[in-house]
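Project standup — Tuesday

K.O.: blocked on the structure for the chain from last sprint. Re-posting the sequence here as requested.
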Amino acid sequence: MRVTAGMNMRLHLVRVLRATVYCFNIHTLVLCAISCMSCYVAMRMNWSYRLEFSLMALGITIPLTFNITQAFTRRERALITLAEMKASIIALYWQHRDWPQDDNFPDSLGNNRSAWAVQFANVALEFLTHVQQYITTPEGYESLSEIRLRAKRSTLLALSLGDTRLQPVGDSDSLAASFILRVQRINRSLPGYTHIQAAYGCLSRMSVMNEQLTFKARYSRGGEGGLSRSAQYLRYLMAQMEQLRMIKIYRTPFMLRYCCSVLIHIGAIVLGPYFVHIGEQGRRYLQPCPVLYNYES
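H.V.: unblocked you, prediction finished:
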């Protein structure tokens, strides 16, 4: 009990240390130093202005809240999809393990070492490995939207003119076709493309093994005796893999995240005179003022 209590105490201290380092890392400390330097320069230059702080706060907090909410929603959806995928492939594996009626049937039921069970298990593990590698492989792009922006060309010029559309403007079929080809070319060059292709190859082999299972189970045609469930499980695997793929390539709007980051970093500088104004107003009510911005008029 003492050893367990000591381990729990050390684990708790490590968690607190991680949380502290996460909150006060180099980035946040440098940002705080820049904010303090901005206030100091504003005091020295006698710069100050009054601002409705809610305008700045709402412009940052609302997009941040939206991003955080959507990120956790997508996380929960991905976890549920992963659990469903594991359940589908295990059910399909048990079907291939127990349904073949060979010479040892029914003694062969539950035998994980039979040749057919091992063969299907290898294909299933290969499929899960490729799905895992596809999900965890960095693509170099934030989302499909960024890929479409790159394929559009002249992105910076279009954005500077207020054109935020993710495809070229025009009614020409050749222009649209060339844009689609550029998007497809970029997709094929991504590191995860080979893994998603290999995963579909594994699903194709599972489909063939489902048809072979019909004869191993001594049925004359597919779908007899409940064998239609094998095709249903395979369809579930394809749908769940595509759901994970959509979660990966259709992320929360990346421009919104970068806008929040830009506003936070710019706010650390431009709000310096505003905090000086708050400090000057606070000196009227408290002498000496222990903090530069204690009260807001």
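K.O.: great, moving the ticket to review. Residues 53-98 form the longest helix (46 residues). DSSP finds eleven helices and no strands in the chain.
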